[in-house]
Amino acid sequence: MGTWQSGAFLISAAPGAGKTRPSIEIARRLLARGEIDRVVVACPTTPLTRQWATAAGRLGLQLVPDAAELVAPRDFHGVAVTYAKIAMVASRWTSQCTGRTLVIADEAHHLGEELAWGEGFALAFRNAARWLLLSGTPFRSDTTPIPGVRYDAEGVAVADISYTYAEAVREGVCRPVTFIPYDGTLSWRSGDDVIEAGFDTVLTAREASRRYRTAISAELSDGLPRILAAAHARLQEARAAGHRDAGGLVVAADSDHARKIARLLKDVSGRSPAVVLHAEAGAHKKLAAFTASREEWIVAVNMVSEGVDIPRLRVGVYASAAKTPLIFRQVVGRFVRTIAGRPADMSWLYLPGDPVLRRHATDVEGELRHVLRRGDGDEELFDEREERRETEPSEAVEFVALSADVSPTSQMSLFGGGPAVAHAPVAPMASFTAAVPDAVPEPASRLSAFERRTILRDKRHRLVADLGRRDRRPHREINAWLNDAVGVTRVQDATIEQLERSVDLLLDALSGRVVRR
Predict the structure, then answer these.
(1) Inter-residue contact 315 to 238 (CB < 8 Å)
(2) What is the pLDDT of residues 439-468, one digit of tens each?
(3) At what angle do helices 115-124 and 83-96 cross, to 10 degrees?
(4) CA distance 309 to 321
(5) pLDDT tens-place string over residues 80-92
(6) What domains are defined for the chain?
(7) Global pTM?
(8) What phi and psi values does residue 210 have, to the nearest 5 degrees?
(9) Distances from the Cα of 12 to the Cα of 148, 335, 406, 432, angstroms
(10) Alpha helix (H) ranges present in 200-241?
């Protein structure tokens, strides 16, 4: 790391292991040494830009979240912005980005997901000397190359620093996880045939997919509902053992599936769980509310990948339709996060005993490699080809889940299921940050600049409204007076000092201590 002067640098760290803080430390130190003059953090989603700005601000690196411009106000060291927004403004930002810009790409594998995202990112930041690429899953099931990532002669992604689950658990940075597959007798109608099988039976891709759909059906009383009851009992054990606000998460297949699961959980626990749907307005607020609460269960669809940080989650049920290694590892990452001051207690994840998921559970401890080209003999990583064909009239074959009689089978303990780590988590990737000398002292303030600006802008807005009501003056006129008085053209360009001055002027005006123009 100490020799990194230019180009891309890839950090592959297990989800939950903590890539944010080391990256912030690097940015702070490069700024303090005068090697860069601006930081850009690129993220998949808008809520993630706010999470980055908050975390960075508390360490003294001030970022504007969901920024509209590459050049930040004087109070800030840089911006946090989504890949989608970068793609929209790429050509304009190219001229604004210099060699002294540090670009941090969070969850960089998304750059291969949307062609426009990857192309826009590469165009917007082609002049930047350094790209710091971060990913807990630096590979893609669709084999699309990730911009900036180096590949060896076999087409495998090469990480500059790799930090596995095994290392994270050994150092107390992540919780150990026990996987609990469930299996038994499943039956379904496929056209005119009724098929009965467990997960140990070899089936065609179509019937294997239907077996899985039967296993996650919320309508078969001795199937998923039985597993939800077992998971709830496990959660109660964790709470009784001292983790009194321990939480549980069910990852559902779709919105209708999530609502059915929520009703089942209410029957089991006596309380309605939180339900968070990715297409629902206010979904991230629901996630935040659950994170801060003591509620037992949350059911979610497409809301539990990158950036969702709920350290109190201890028990999970995998009922998602997706079976790719990327999605699986991201779900596992929701249960490995630790809590300051608590030991790294065991977490449990219940999942169908499907061979694909069992393989993912076995492999999650090691390094998953992003291979650009799939060999002729490589097995398909998910069984959704038949489901796609079934949407075509010529291929339509009736499927009905009929019955399930399943129970938890032998446990699969991640890292051997050793005793819980008794010490507090240590700083991850010590070699990464240690390689960059000259630590910068952390600031005394625990509020980031963007949080302080948000508070001041809200206060200014309320005071402008108060003054407008009292004097019967339009807000536009009052804002123009304030902007002129503090020396800005637009309120969004105001520094913290100028916002504080605006608030003082408004308070003085409301108290009658100043003469307004």
Answers:
(1) yes
(2) 555 554 567 888 888 888 888 998 999 888
(3) 20
(4) 22
(5) 999 999 999 999 9
(6) 7-168 (3.40.50.10810), 173-367+378-417 (3.40.50.300), 449-511 (no CATH)
(7) 0.69
(8) -70, -35
(9) 13, 18, 37, 12
(10) 205-215, 224-240
